[in-house]
Amino acid sequence: MSAAARTTDTRDRMVRAADQLFRAQGLHATGVAEILERSGAPRGSLYHYFPGGKEQIAVEAIAHAATTFCRNITAAIDANDGSLPAAVRLYGNAVAARLVATDFLEGCPIGNSAIEGSVGSAAISAACDQAFREFAAVMADHFVEQGVARHEADGLATFVVSAVEGALLLSRVRRDAQPVVDATERVATMLQAALDAVDRGVSS
């Protein structure tokens, strides 16, 4: 492996490690030493690869999580004959299963970071905002392709993100996956109604 490839691999492992830790324990509870240990990177290497320190790796971990979500939801749409409602249901079931499997420890790394990073780090707050916007944009663009008006598609997509993030938080607090399952089912039903309205020619 070339030196450049080793550098990329080490950086990627550190970003993925930060993502995993932020899911379970949040931004402030995650230390640099934990990121290095989880990633297997050499001690002291974080500031070599991330001169901006923990804030920089947090921003990149948030971007990584956003990219992963967008890729996964797109794959779920494709796997369900282009149906966003079906993809949302699939996503909700996957999130619920992950919650149970991790004993409700793993939430959304972006949601966790947004709450903590909104105080003290404009860069982290901006990265979280961008990530949520990317979530919504993937769904909104798909809806527009299906004939939903842009303003309605944008509103629906923002609602989906808000509902799922809120349900995820509630599920972790209650230690019960049902809020996520219920929220994604209701969201999927609402999205299907919007598509049905397009088919009837009554989309707003």
What's a concise summary of this model?
This protein is mainly alpha-helical. Helices cover 79% and strands 0% of the residues.
Task: Give short descriptive properties of this protein.
204 residues, mainly alpha, Tetracycline Repressor, domain 2, 9 helices
Overview of this structure, please?
- The protein has helices at 3-25, 32-39, 46-49, 53-79, 84-101, 109-117, 122-145, 150-174, 178-200.
- It has nine helices and no strands.
- The model has no long low-confidence stretch (mean pLDDT 90).
- The chain has a domain at 61-200: Orthogonal Bundle (Tetracycline Repressor, domain 2), CATH 1.10.357.
Strand content: under 5%
CATH topology of the domain at 61-200: Tetracycline Repressor, domain 2
Low-pLDDT runs: none
Shape: elongated
- How much helicity do the residues have? over 70%
Radius of gyration: 18 Å
Q: Which CATH-level-2 architecture of the domain at 61-200? A: Orthogonal Bundle
* Count of individual helical segments: 9
Q: Indicate the mean pLDDT.
A: 90
The number of distinct β-strands equals 0
The assigned structural class equals: mainly alpha
Write down the secondary-structure element order.
HHHHHHHHH
Major sheet summary line: none
